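Re: the multi-chain job from yesterday

Posting the exact lines I submitted so nobody has to dig through the queue logs.
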Amino acid sequence: MIEYKNILTTCPYCGTGCALHLQVLDGALVGVLPAKGHPISQGSLCIKGWNAHAFVNHKDRLRTPYIRKNGELVEATWEEALTLVAEKLGAIKAESGPDSIGILTSAKCTNEENYLLQKLARAVIGTNNIDHCARL
Amino acid sequence: MTDRLTSLHEAIEQVFPQVEGVLALKRGPAGIAAPYLFSPEHPEELELLVLWPKEPVPDTLKIIQRAHTDSKLAIVCRGCEERGIVEMFKHSQLKWDNITLIGLECTQEEAEFCRCAKPFTIHATNTVGDSIQGVPDPLTDKIAAMSLEEKRAFWMEEFEHCIKCYGCRNICPQCFCNICTLEDEKWVETGRLPLPNPSMYHMIRAMHMTAKCVACRECEETCPAGIPMAVQFRLIARDVQEMFFYETGAKLDQKPPQLLVLEEGEYQRTGLPH
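And the result, structure tokens for all chains:
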């Protein structure tokens, strides 16, 4: 049986919230169509939205964390990577104070993820240095 | 509206036994519709069949046919979409014999939305809705009546609004080259907006749409800058008809002029001035 369908979703590239259709043929993502009748994007997309499917199965996509060891990026587990980040942030905070650390969140994240990052900045690290990539 | 939908529902059910799928529009979340391949194995899904909006379905048909080369498929197509399928067939993008057309005739309101001269199908043997006459295109007529200087000023201003999303190229069922001139830095500079030479992108596209554009207006509809680019293609189409006696989507056995120049015999037979 041939299966072709479109899945309505929100563009992941910025905070505007354009809608797009992911074209799915036999279970594989094959392209993007704009969503006519959507109140925000009204059937239009920018160049990023038109290519929003391209990274999903891209060969260069990172699928695991990497840690630089002796100048080279080496594959790592999430456990190793998060431990290293926590240790380094902890060391910087102990040495130079919490305001020596800043966090930039992303328009590509959900509200809930952005909330959690500001919580991490304020309650865990102890700084108000929290901002958003769209203000860079 | 309801009548047309019921008739289309019935027309699709009638072709189901002969095909592996019928490409039409399905209502999705928040009432937003998209192309969908209805399967004869799931006729109940036709409850979600809708008539509007217009979508670039000839291109979708190509995507499916490329992956399933011998599949027998049906497609619900409006006049412009039928013309798109005919032209894609002539340029070897679709297998005509494997396609069953279900013609959907446009209403007066739909034709006016598209300023469409031919809101009807001519090749489909199964059709739904009453065929109506074409409607005038006041915008194209207005621009055609401008002086050369006025035209130049009008288009230069329009092209300066371009954000180079490539939407007009992406959505166009007649844009199918593997290597696209618009992605060649020699012609279209990347990384700068507004475009240093705004007319370059659009003039290249206008040239490439000659004797190809089927006036579906998908490009205009998707343009975030609201550039009325279909007007250019319609004006070129008038010239093509006058010079080459060629109308896109009309005669299945008439080759497009850009293919004719390669074959001298055909070239003379069209009565081309030479």
